[in-house]
Amino acid sequence: MNNLAIKNAFGKARLANKYYYSQIYYFYKINGLPYWYNFAINMESILSIRKVSKQYANHLALDHVNIEIPEGSIFGLLGPNGAGKTSLIRIITQITAADTGEVLFRGEPLQSKHTKLIGYLPEERGLYKKMEVGEQLLYIGQLKGLKKAEVIERCKYWVEKFEIKDWWKKKLEELSKGMQQKVQFISTVLHNPKLIILDEPFTGFDPINANLIKDEILELKRKGATIIFSTHRMETVEQLCDHIALINKSKKVLDGSLSDIRNKFKRNEYDLEYFGGSLHSNGIQIVSDEPSLDGTRKAVLKAPVGMETNDLIRQLVSQVHVESFSHRIPSINDIFIEVVERQD
Description:
Layout: H1 3-15, H2 18-31, E1 45-56, E2 59-70, E3 74-78, H3 85-92, E4 100-105, E5 108-109, E6 118-121, H4 133-143, H5 148-161, H6 177-189, E7 195-199, H7 207-222, E8 226-230, H8 234-240, E9 243-248, E10 251-257, H9 258-264, E11 269-275, E12 285-291, E13 297-302, H10 309-317, E14 321-327, H11 332-343
Parallel strand pairs: 3-8, 3-9, 6-7, 7-8
Antiparallel strand pairs: 1-2, 1-4, 4-5, 9-10, 11-13, 11-14, 12-13
Helix pairs in contact: 1-2, 4-5
């Protein structure tokens, strides 16, 4: 197969057919083709983290971590304090390098040229407190490769949207913590990065402004950006994330789509709202059964292993009037605690 034929196959792979993915990868392997051909097999990932390890003196921060981050997704990077999340983010942003393994950006090795395609909001904010807001945004925008006129045009959009245009000439130290956070967020997304990394982005925001930032994150995703979202706020993970990875003690211990992970961890537990009659166990464990203010009762039931949902429902409707019935799906917070405690 010549280069033209391979390029044609590459084009077809981009359209959908996974057969061509493996075909291109095969020729890449045996013929030593340029590395961009490897892009075909990573078509759906903007970032591929492969066997990445990092050690600081006697501390192993990352141990052969493998993660695929789908393009156009909001990806939750989770883990306890000290698990290795920040070390991984520093590798992705090229602040430091991995000791072993590799990181691919859209199929090619991560390089300095990719920094202009990445926006990073660190947990420890890093703006210059003595600089004026406008001066600071102009400086950061031009650092990211934008022309001054472009920066000014984009700044107009963001400062109006975040209602901070009256602060344009103010020094950062004169702003409240929430206002400073808005400026930091703008500086992160000003250059329209393809990959946005947000480390605890809601710190310092009141509920109204936190919702404003959530809306902007969803809008950035709608426009095609990929967001890596690191936080300890599990309720926000459930609201925003499509996929997650959990790192604990330097290893990736869990990853996948949010829905698949929650379904994987669900047990034979059900929420029941009912009135009339009374519940009898008949092999079903009644975990709780409490009255509600509206006159109904709410119960949590645990069915025996192997019991079909339809059989459970038939048994319940013969005892009580069922108002609502649903399979209890564990929260990400519950799953986080279970997985981490299992390792401890």
